[in-house]
Amino acid sequence: MLEIEGLCKRFDEHLVVNDLSFTVQPGEVLGFLGPNGAGKSTTMKMIAGFLRPDAGTARIGGADIVNDTLQAQSKLGYLPEGAPAYGDMRVDRFLEFMADMRSLRGELRRQRLASVVHDVHLESVLAQRIDTLSKGFRRRVGLAQAILHDPDVLILDEPTDGLDPNQKHEVRKLISNMSAEKIIVISTHILEEVEAVCSRAMIIANGRLLIDGTPLELAKRSRLHGAVTLQMKDSGEAVAALQDLPGVVTVENDEALGEITAIGNGSQNLLASINDLVRERSWPVDGVYQKHGRLDEVFRSITREALT
Amino acid sequence: MNAVTALFRREFHAYFATPLAYIFLVIFLVLTGVFTFYLGSFYERSQADLESFFTFHPWLYLFLVPAIAMRLWAEERKSGTVELLLTLPISMWQAVIAKFLAAWSFIAIALALTFPMWITVNYLGAPDNGAILAAYIGSLLMAGSYLAIGVCISATTSSQVIAFIVTVVVCFFFTLAGYPLVLEAFRGWLPDTLVQLVASLGFLSHFEAIKKGVLDLRDVVYFAAMIGFWLYAGAIVIDFKKAD
Ligand SMILES: Nc1ncnc2c1ncn2[C@@H]1O[C@H](COP(=O)(O)OP(=O)(O)OP(=O)(O)O)[C@@H](O)[C@H]1O
Ligand SMILES: [Mg+2]
To answer: Which end of chain B is more exposed for a tag (fewer CB within 10 A), N or C?
Structure first.
């Protein structure tokens, strides 16, 4: 279990992480979201034992990162922001070095090295110096070292940044495959990634937790969640008629696109009543569809509120 | 392999990953030769000892050891690997010591490669080999002190160039601390007891007996204490400036 308790970090006079508390259970993949400068990386650095919190602590499988640092760190795999690695080393030598630093020995060491090289697809660059690698390959080397010792807890700061679409897909698959018995925390700016791999998402801004829930719960917070769009030209009466339906809050008419969208308050299903209305009035409609809330829209509205 | 050994090996190999190691070794060996035979009047003294060889060690170390030390932490900070290193299950202390020992071992190798000097003097006469060994050990200890200063200063910056220059300046001060050049600068405004203290910190003064082959316990303690103090200060600096 990963327990974060009252974590605070101050840089100069600026409170960058402000009393953050949460718990993550094995099997959960937590997506850590927030605008640039929200304090995501700072939080991860504290969980990984690099920065000392000004207040609060993190416990990794019961081991306190502040008082029992080495014990806690041994249970942790960490990909720092930007995936730093020793540029003067070859990929294979670097991974062997990391295996030694993790005190892996003998058959297990050999087997883990082979396994991560295969999982992260590093076969083609094993003999290359790290500072000659492309950005995506560097990120993959960073990912490989983080999962090398098969840790219980993985902290990955933007693991898919700079990867090509195929590799993004591969890495997401890898994360999903590992997720069953592990605790995984990833930070990302790619919201479709949250929907693809995370079982839980948190949005922070100015170091404060704004919202915490499943990606679906978050999406439901969207103004547009459950809204119904009609593809038709407004003959004059449609907007007014829709406006009068029970449960409809606003109606937006996009003349250029030829779309009319009825936005509800989220408590009522509008689709049935709108379908009835369309049939009753025999409007010339090309299509009717219901919208799902979009995470990016929720992200924008929630963080904009917090930042103003 | 445990983490300290692994880090030691990585750091040691890192010197040989670039041409730096070979350049350093060549310069070190050429300069020891030049100093000993030209400036040190090795032949003219007609003595079967290596004093003219050891006399110049502080001056060699003054410029060459900072070049070895500068990358130790500045490079980690520049490339961000310090974050990787210090989130591995290895304590700050172990990391500082493993890196120090790797650099020190490299200097030990450079020193060991001066063995032709020892062969030459044995060929020409019958020197006191015990005294020569003692001087070698003392010289290595002094190199460790220069190196420890470099470790601490390398931890304060992410620029290797700045680390090098500042280390040379600080090392210059400690080299000459017992001599009028430095002491005069302090005499005006420091109480006499403190000036005495500064005077007792000079590398040259503590190397005086060692270069003649006399390994006095007080000098050994002095250099060991210098190493301990500067490594301790280095660990504090790294901890303090980690976030930057
Ligand atoms: N060492 C430091 N000294 C001073 N301020 C810092 C330091 N490190 C981070 N900050 C500040 O703390 C805030 C949070 O930074 P952090 O890197 O945690 O953001 P983030 O959420 O990871 O952003 P991004 O999405 O851009 O990666 C920023 O305003 C940053 O400028
Ligand atoms: Mg970040």
So the answer is: C
